[in-house]
Amino acid sequence: MAGDRQQTTDPRVGSSRRRVLAAGALAPLLAAAPAPARAHPAVLPTASSGGSKLIDPVQTTRADWKDVAKALGRTGDIKRKMMYHIGLPRRDLRVVSQRINVTAPLALGSHVSFVRYADDSTLLMGDVVVTEPELQDFVDVLQEHGIGLTALHKHLLSHRPDVWWVHVHGHGHDPVALARGLRAAFDCTATPPPATHDLAVKVHLDTARIDRALGAKGSVDEGIYKCVFVRRERITDHHLVLPPGLGSTSALNFQALGHGRAAISADCCMIASEVQDVLRALRRAGAKLVELHNHGLTDSPRLFFVHFWAVGDAVRLARALRPALDATDVIPAG
Fold first, then answer.
1. Helix (H) or strand (E) holding 17
2. Best CA proximity match to 165, nearest among 131, 140, 137
3. CA-to-CA dists, residue 173 to 78, 84, 124, 181, 184, angstroms
4. Which of 37, 97, 167, 245 sits in a 20 to 30 Å window from 19, CA-based?
5. How far is Cα of residue 106 from the mean position of the Cα atoms in its chain?
6. SS3 for 132-164, per residue?
7. Kind of pairing, strands 159-160 and 95-97?
8. How far apart are CA 258 and CA 282, in angstroms?
9. How many CA within 13 A on the CB side of residue 228?
10. How confident is the model at residue 220, as a pLDDT?
11. Residue 114 class from Cβ within 10 Å (0-12 exposed, 13-18 middle, 19+ buried)?
């Protein structure tokens, strides 16, 4: 229409058009010019970032950790020649879940591990049981001492008293400082000192048939039968290579209930592509799902954990649960 062909005489429009044309003429020059400097956040090297070389753990003995044991007020033992492992079971708690009296080694076993690395640094990782009234102070003291949290979750379904599981993580060149911070946090809880009496208890289960069903040789811990599996892959945390089994185990704990029956509290370690197959296998086995989550923040490959619960004939449950383990890339811990 004629009105559409009429030119405008508004000077603001002409000025706007000149600015657009000028910007278009400058675009090729701007594209060829170097980009202005920008601040980038520091990025720690990881297994997948192509950063610095990965650092391996080194073998140690109990003597290497005597100062840590003194600061922590508890002694540990060496696992797989690399991990200084300290168990802190909550024997002070009387927890009931699904009408089952839960013993400390079944699901209430706090534990922490220290690992020395080739660069003389130390990694602290652990899983700690705290009651709900203890939780916030425990967290605050950890943070005051530079120890981080990587997970906060449940291992049990409806239970009393309310209990939480906290995954702790620390890394530095002063292992005694890490131990002191951990000790200060534990002092905010009623975690008891190590037992001084013999806690050997016979397991009233057909452990040989459980072993055959699961394809692994279990062990006894204060009357609880435990079968543990580790991932086959190399697992890293940032630029640190984790010893086999540190933060990457699948474990099934059997508490005898009499007449061949057992309560099972367990978790299964998975990569993302395994999760759905494992969950389906667990439900087909009659297991109750408790929690699906991560234990770490910077692990590679990324690991997921499902905590589950089952009650019934121990051998039949072991057979039924085997497909869930077979859906993951694990081997018996040995």
1. helix 11-32
2. 131
3. 20, 16, 11, 14, 19
4. 37
5. 18
6. HHHHHHHHHHHHHCCCEEEEEECCCCCEECCEE
7. antiparallel
8. 23
9. 15
10. 95
11. buried
Q: Say whether 189 sits in a helix, a strand or coil.
A: coil
Q: How far apart are CA 248 and CA 270, in angstroms?
A: 9
Segments in the chain below pLDDT 70: 1-52, 196-199
Statement: the pTM of the whole predicted model exceeds 0.90: no
Would you say 134 and 187 are in contact if contact means Cβ atoms under 8 Å apart?
no
Tokens of 98: 């699904």
Per the CB < 8 A criterion, the answer to whether 167 and 127 are in contact is: yes
Q: Can you give the pLDDT at residue 197?
A: 59
pLDDT digits (tens, 9 = 90+) for 1-10: 434 434 444 4
CA distance 166 to 279: 23
Residue 63 φ/ψ, nearest 5 degrees: -60, -30
Kindly provide the b/e burial profile for residues 210-230, where b requires at least 16 CB atoms within 10 angstroms of the residue's own CB.
bbebbebebeebbbbbbbbbb
8 Å CB contact between 332 and 216: yes
Q: Which two tokens stand for residue 50?
A: 């192509």
Q: Render pLDDT for 176-190 as a digit per residue (tens, 0 to 9).
A: 999 999 999 999 999
Cα separation values, 240 from 47, 207, 233, 268, 296, Å: 8, 37, 14, 23, 13
Is 280 within 8 Å of 246 (Cβ atoms)? no
Q: What is the DSSP string of 58-114?
A: ----GGGGHHHHHHHT---EEETTTEEEEEEE-TT--EEETTEEE-HHHH-EEEEEE
* Cα separation of the two ends of the chain: 87
What distance in Å separates the CA atoms of residue 298 and residue 253, rounded to the nearest whole number?
A: 27
pLDDT in the model for residue 189 = 97
Residue 306 near residue 279 (C-beta atoms within 8 A): yes
Confidence at residue 195, expressed as pLDDT on a 0 to 100 scale: 73
CA distance 231 to 250: 8
